[in-house]
Structures are given as structure tokens and as C-alpha cells.
Amino acid sequence: MRIGIFDSGVGGLIVARAIRRAMPEYDYVYLGDTKRVPYGNRSPQTVFEFTREAVDYLLRRENCAIVVLACNTASALALRKIQREYLVKNFPDRKVIGVLIPAAEEAAKFERVGVLGTVGTVASKSFPKEINKINIEVNRARGRTRVFQNAAPMLVPLAEAGERKLAEPFIRKYLQPLVNKNINALVLGCTHYPIFKKEIKKLLPKGVKIISQDEIVPKKLKSYLARHSEISTKLTKGKKFKILVTDITEVIRSLSPKLVLL
User: Fold this and answer.
1) What is the pLDDT of residue 261?
2) Which residues of 190-246 form beta strands (DSSP E)?
3) Is there a single domain that holds both residue 206 and residue 219?
4) Do 165 and 256 have their domain in common?
5) Which of 129, 147, 171, 213 is the 20 to 30 A CA-CA neighbour of 110?
6) Can 71 be counted among the known catalytic residues?
């Protein structure tokens, strides 16, 4: 059985690559819903339906024991319902986890945190909720982290189009309200955003920590598998990696020669 990784587009490939580097022994399958990207401006019900379809495909057709939602919008708007309803009814022996909580755990270490995310992720208020839940449970003595959010709706389509230079003025516009809040950490609350990590770092004041999920999720997943032998013992170790997308554009084709169109 494989580890499945799902994202609305190709941004999650950054997380997938990092996971494979940390645990190269396993077999992986990546699914990017490039036909319907972005998810960030969709309704919560639509995000849930799209995510459920993807998870169902990975569990049923690709024989995944665990699926990582490498999409913050899906993690914010669909994960809990998939865990509590879909899995319980259809695959009680499988797991689906997200990328939002690992980033929130890291962000909770700081006093003033900015979150750059999609419209859907920001509207869900999932990052402030999860960060302060961790503060209450773990960091009681220090008190709550102050969390400031800003939506960055243009960054996903620009990332999917490979337009790094065109993205710079948008990045500057989206970052400025967070910089004005004197943040000491910035969460890249979308797995597409690490594509612009260099541009973002250049525009942030010195000393601001960038919390990027490709640097956090691999360690968290490795730890999760170590704690859940009922999943890890099912995983095959053939070092294979399969990439599936729902639509192939020229930019996407240039990313990998291994793309398979669904």
C-alpha cells in the first residue's frame, strides 16, 4: 500500500518532494486536481466534495493506506468531515491527515504571527483557532499568540502558471499589512507559496521566521507513522513515485516527465 498526497494543483509537489527525501523507502502517489485549481475561492461544500472525490480515488483505486492533504484549503474546510464521516463509513482502517496543524504547532512558538493564505483558508479562521488551541494546551504561561491573516488570491494561479516575476508586486501587496503588524513569524498557509519563498524572504524584515510546510510536514509524518504501526506496517517499500493530474498544461508538463492524466 502507498502513501497518497493530494493537492488542488501542483504546489503540493513541493511537500511531496520533501516527504520523499525524508522517507525515500516508501511508495507514493501524488494527485493534483489541476483541472479545478484553485480551491481557495470555492465554497466549503465544493471544497469538501472535490477533496472527498480525490481521497476516494487514492484510497480505492491507488490502494493508499494514508493520504496527506497537502492543501491548506482542503485541510481547513474538508479534513474533519472526511475523518469523522467519510472514513468511518467507508475506510475505517485508513487515515487522512492535513498540513495545517503541523504549521500551527510551529507558529504557536511565536508571539506575533502572520498567515498568508487562500481566501477560503483565511475565511475559515482555522489557523488562529488551531494556533491558540495549542497555546491554551501547551503554552499557558506565555499566553496567546496574536495572529494576523491576509488572503493572497493571485498567488496560486501565478504559481500554476510559473510566473515568479509577475508575482512580486502581488507578494509585496499581500505582505505589507502583515509586516505592519510587526510579526516575528510568517506562515505560508498554502503549499503553492513556497514556490515564492525567495521573493517572500527578500520582502520581509530581517529576523522574521518563515514557516513553510515543506520544511515541517516530513518530520511530522515520519513521527506519525512511527506512532501508528497499524498504518506503517501496511506500506510497501519500493521507492516508487507516481504523479497523477486531472489536466495537463504546458507548465505542468515541464515539471515532470512522469505525469499521468486522469
Assistant:
1) 46
2) 209-211, 241-245
3) no
4) no
5) 171
6) yes
